[in-house]
Amino acid sequence: MRLFVQVPCLNEEQTLPLVLESIPKEIPGIDEIHVLIIDDGSNDRTVEVARSFGVEHFVFHTRNMGLARSFRDGVDYALQHGADIVVNTDGDNQYPQDRIADLVQPIVNGTADIVIGDRQTKTISHFSPFKKLMQRIGSQVVNFAGGTKLPDAASGFRAYSRESLYRLNVVTEFSYCMETIIQAGHKRMRIDSVPVTTNPKTRESRLFKNIFQHMGRSGQAIMRSYIMFKPHAVFLSLGLLLLVLAMIPFVRYLVLMWIGAAGDHVQSLILGVALLVGSLLCFALLVISDMLRTNRALVEESLERLRAMQYAPQNQIDPTVPSVADTVRHPSMMVTPPLAMRGIQEDGPEADRT
After folding, report:
1. Which of 120, 145, 154, 284 would disulfide-bridge 226, Cβ 3.0–4.6 Å?
2. Is the dihedral of CA 285, 286, 288, 293 positive or negative?
């Protein structure tokens, strides 16, 4: 079984050695362990530091693309190179890499598809009481949206099986954490949680400027994902609410007309019509979103089959053989499709076309 530990990095030359030193070299049930560095537009010596520790696998972004894009590109690279399990950690040494063995064990044993490290946020000393409260509320909201029971939904210390990555589709530009949990919950994947303790804080987060920005952008990602899977719960409820509210001014106007005082209360009709139009729009959006949900389910099934073919064993790249593409920078990222790699490595017409 082949494990890839991917480390998204943005100017992490100071903390990256702590991360790389603590990644285990041997794990029961794992035959190969590879470290993958996603250089998300660093302008320091992050890459040089990684190479000095013997890292051979890199994905390069020539500018900062964000955590979600880094996660997607890292997963694509890992699957191309035959990863059976992908572990995501951070370059700031927030997470205890020495617990990776515990993190992947449920997947190795076949009892989980995704395992999330529970940071036990209420015990983290550098978290303010407000942040601890928001972390707990945020996890509850994600659990409600995804039908899961996770104590720390925002944790980025995670392990994914190959099969789960085939089925997940990250579309947000901010962070993949909330979105993948909600998707996994609705797709009935097995999600487990492992209690871990975090390392001392090394720097402020570069993902967001303050907790309120994090809350806002996370809320958008949660709402978008929830509507994708449960449009009825949103638009039907909102449409019925507006319909009931629309009846109130209409009934009021009928009562006033019955007692002969309706002439001065046309505003009730205007308000009722506005609420009724809003209700009808919600029902129309419900029909549209339900059709889109059906279409999305068919597209995702096709994507899952496509990935199974794209990352099939005959198309995989041997991670123990250095390739030219591993050191080439692309304007946005460096991930080489298997066919292109075979064109580079083989002779003949296929290589000429490349």
Report:
1. 145
2. positive
